[in-house]
Amino acid sequence: MFNVINQTNKRGEKKKGVTDKDVDLVPSLLDRMHEKNEVIMVNQLGSSTGKENSLEDQPSYLVQEATSDDKKKLTEYTTTMEDQLTSQNRSAFLPTEQKEQSKVVTDNATSGDDQSTSSDELTSPDERSLSSTLAVTYKHLSFPLKCCLLYLGLFPRLYEIPIRRLLQLWLAEGQVTQPTGETKPPKPLEELAKDCFEELLGTRMIEKSEVRLDGSTKTCCVTNALYDTLLLNAEKVGFFHIHRSSGTSQSPRLAEHLDMYIHTKSSEISIKHLRSYIPFYKKKGDAPTSGVSELLKTIVKGGFESLVVLDLEGVYKPVLSEMVGKLRQLKYLGLRRTLLDSVPESVGGLPDLETLDIKQTYVVTLPSTIWEAKKLRHLHMSEIYFDVKKSTRGSLKSHQTLWGLIIRRKLRETDWLVNLTGLRKLKLTCLEPSMEDIADWLTELSNLQALKLRSISDSNEPARLAIKAMRNLTNLSRLYLLGELPNTFKVSDLPENLEVLTLSVSHQSEDPMEALGKLGKLEVLKLYAHSFKGQNMTCHRDGFPQLQVLKLWMLKELQSWTVKDKAMPILKEIEIRCCKNLEKVDGLKNLTSLKELTLTNMKSSFIEYAREKVGDKVIENDWKFPPPWDTRARAES
């Protein structure tokens, strides 16, 4: 597969290491692959900032379907990374003009300011010395992992890539496939993608940017010492080609009215084989981004509807038309953080759609036909209602993620929702009358790994949760329950493999800590507002053997907390917030692994007491405004 990036270069200089011969190789490789319909191209668009340019890549099918000669040529090119990584150590001593030529320029197509930065300007001596080790590591990567790594080079320098986004893009572009010749039952592709990421993370060629409380990676970025070489090699092996537009294409008017400038007239090939499109730029002003609509018009008008990935995450209000429905090969449609308030009806008719992400938007309804998408696997939403009684012809058992659905009525056996038996991630908000049926259905989701369940009343207040025993949900590791737990519910009914547990508005009158302490794999426990109504709480000996993070928020009745010897032996972080009646914590010194005790809006007497016990481990936060849940204080202020 081959990717084209349309990129502005103000200087018009050739990049060091890329010759005319290398560039000429691309069309010949393209012609051979186009005969097999294996061509993927990417159009990189200019942006309003140098650090967030439009970048995209699709190397997967090159690995899977390219000819043996092309694969051999790709392998030969990728081995040059060892020499180029090592040469970074010498880059600091190059003459200025050579340094300029060695930059991978990412110009601003709307401003004319050169925002690019060479590797020696952003890397420290330690990072440059690390490149020799990285070169050896890269040489020993498997072929598919090299392709996955090169893919990351298409994101802007130091861009924090959400793991959720990265893995689903890999899947949409076919970079992760089932291994051949395996005798064991096949892993889901999502699990294989995670394995690839973890293996790359272990090479130190990519690094964690943001980590969740349980230690899992939320975002990552390419190691700075590797970035320039990675980008250069990705272009050189044919994963993408940098197309340089002329200076006259930088229209001041477009810069004034659009954050994104799409240069589609310079070369028809930039659009004809476009398969993936991901823009990166910062929002400027309040004007919707119409450039996306213009791009789609060009694609559809030319009969080039081969787009597989359309990822507009973070683009401000892109103007999407019903022409999206003509992109019959589209697998990934990312609209997260776009602030859109509607989705084109034609989206429901996309036959190959696998991922639709409309989280953090103002979309409140979806086309009813979306549930008929036979290949839909991941649906990310922000509290969207859908009538579950409507019939669907889709392959519901392929659904992996259903996040952000509102259920307003009781379920029937004929409702399509009960057929979603393969779910792994689920977030539901249910009106109280529907809870009994939902509770029965949940016990059948044996593949479930993450569940967030909220019960609300007609007035949108927290309501009763009709939860039944979950011990059979052995794959469930992350659980968030918001609502009053019934008296019949026992903490011991929770899945034994839980790693992260959050309880909110549970109204538990009995101390839950002894039972919770028996969850041997629990790493993060968050007890939020009104989850416990008692005055005394005790963590017993040998309880919580793996707990590392504990949060106690707004437990208004709590007065004393006792920590027995050898309880929570590896606990590192505690946050106590707005527990106004808490006077003491007996046994605080027993927490020998504690690194931070964060106290937010706590009484000064308790803060002094805590400092006497654990000294400088105490971090004090004092909010000067009433919390959003304290409506009385807000009214008085």
Automatic annotation (TrEMBL):
Record-annotated Disease resistance R13L4/SHOC-2-like LRR domain positions: 303-600
Domain of life: Eukaryota
Biological classification of the source: Eukaryota, Viridiplantae, Streptophyta, Embryophyta, Tracheophyta
Keywords: Plant defense, Repeat
UniProt cross-references to InterPro entries, sorted A to Z: Disease_R_plants, LRR_dom_sf, LRR_R13L4/SHOC2-like, WH-like_DNA-bd_sf, WHD_DRP
Annotated spans, Disordered: 1-21, 43-69, 81-129
UniProt-recorded name of the protein: Inactive disease susceptibility protein LOV1-like
Any Pfam family hit: LRR_14
Keyword Lipid metabolism part of the UniProt annotation: no
Compositionally skewed regions (Polar residues) per UniProt: 81-91, 103-122
Domain named Disease resistance protein winged helix: residues: 154-228
GO terms classed as biological process: defense response to other organism
Entries under PANTHER family matching the protein: AAA+ ATPASE DOMAIN-CONTAINING PROTEIN (PTHR23155:SF955), DISEASE RESISTANCE PROTEIN RP (PTHR23155)
